[in-house]
Amino acid sequence: MAEIPKEMMTMVVTSPGNGTAVRDVTVEIKTVPVPVPKRGEVLVKVAAAPINPSDYGSWYLSSAKAYPMNMGNEGCGIVVASGGGLSTYRVPVGTPVGFLSKGAEHGAYSEYIAVSAIASIFPMPEDVIIEDCCSFFVNPYTAVAILDTAVQALAAEGKQCKSIVHTAAASQLGQMLVKLAPRKGIEIINVVRRQEQKELLEGLGAEHVIVTSGDESVWKKTLQSKIKELDCMVAFDAVSGVSTGNMLAALPPKGTVFLYGGLAGSVGGVNPMDMIYRQKKLSGFLLNKWIKNGGTISMVQRMLSAGAEVNEGLQKGGWSSSQFEDTTPEKAMEDLLKLLDGQATNKKLRIRFS
Predict the structure, then answer these.
(1) With helix as H, strand as E and coil as C, how does 120-141 read?
(2) Residues of the chain with pLDDT under 50
(3) pTM for the predicted model, two decimal places
């Protein structure tokens, strides 16, 4: 194992600009001391970390007191030092791990990070290249949580979940759902904006894809027909705006739209009659709420089960694997803006540190 340096590089948001867009933020690369792990913590040499919407959304929408702000919520690497304590025994030096940066002194976009060995460390499969495990948490666990939420919501009404509608379905999360859902006997009605996105999903095995760039009356009718054909009662909407109202309108009476993103801003187009007379529901979905539901014992059982399922699929081509576009700390913001402007691929942006 190489000697641990005294200093390292870390990325920090120093200003949100005018607080309206990612392109307005000011990002600096700072040189800081390498953290020393406390008892119960391990030090991870970071191999890679992804840039998720949940990351960059906070960079310009947080309160003034949040700045300077650490960057990056998840990543992966190798344990290189331990602060000692019983909780560290399961991840000795040399263990490949995924990590969450919440509660750490620095964010995931750092060369090293010291994190809790029990709350923030997840052992990764040794037969998978560690850099390919950097998106092990947010998207894969959300995919598991979405399907479980749909199943539980309908089970509470004595019904079986046969299918769900999913918007922004060409995302990395959407691609994971396409591959995971058949294993659970659930069909996905994928809603995308462009024809090439439909072709992408069909290449992964998707059978039901609705493209919304054409005649509005046609795709809405097609969506309603698919919902009826597949006995669908639940939709998960990452877009918001009028998309939420469209999904709610397409569902049958007593259907539910779970909103988990705000790509298009505030919710719009909701017909009050859908909620008043047709008893349709609009609810929020949040991964952390799903994780903590039912208390500590339920949470531990849920995370162990989800973790085993996610790790099994991390190998290349597996359901929880991601396609990456690599970048560096120096070029990360430039490449992110290209992606957001539609100039990049549908791959997830990954910052490499080794």
Answers:
(1) CEEECCCCCCHHHHCCCCHHHH
(2) none
(3) 0.92
